[in-house]
Design brief:
The chain has 152 residues and is mainly β. The chain has a single domain, classed as Deoxyuridine triphosphatase (dUTPase) (Deoxyuridine 5'-Triphosphate Nucleotidohydrolase, Chain A, Distorted Sandwich). It is 5% helix and 33% strand. It contains one helix and eleven strands. The strands form four sheets. It has a four-stranded antiparallel sheet. A three-stranded antiparallel sheet has the order 4-9-7. The longest helix has 7 residues. The protein is globular, with a radius of gyration of 19 Å.
Amino acid sequence: MQQPVLQIFWLPHGKGLEAPGYQTPHAAGMDVQAAVTEPFTLAPMQRAAIPCGFIMAIPPGYEVQIRPRSGLALKHGISAPNAPGTIDADYRGELKILLINLGSEPFVITRGMRIAQMIVAPVAQATWQAVDSPDHLAPTDRGTGGFGSTGH
């Protein structure tokens, strides 16, 4: 599988920060840094879009998923309310990370702090095919069983 290449352009307030990067050889996600120009306090239950200081081009056929960092979630209750967030290949605006403070204390975000992780993933686009009856849908063992129907 060929490794996708993401193009990056640094905005003035992002200059000097590191590009998102993998922290270990087998990491699935690249850590993303905050490009705040001064410390930003996220109060309990507050949501904010935190700038990352760059725009990027994602190759067609891929998306970038934004996910919370597990350490921030465990230690401080910092999460992404729309996790996973999706950045489409045709988006060319600044990457901003939606964060929420689910903790009980204010949390200060500083410049260069690793605030989220991004996963590059292939995308398959689907088409729809209408059928005349539910009987024309491929049968499964589960059928119409929904919430809790598998017994766990």
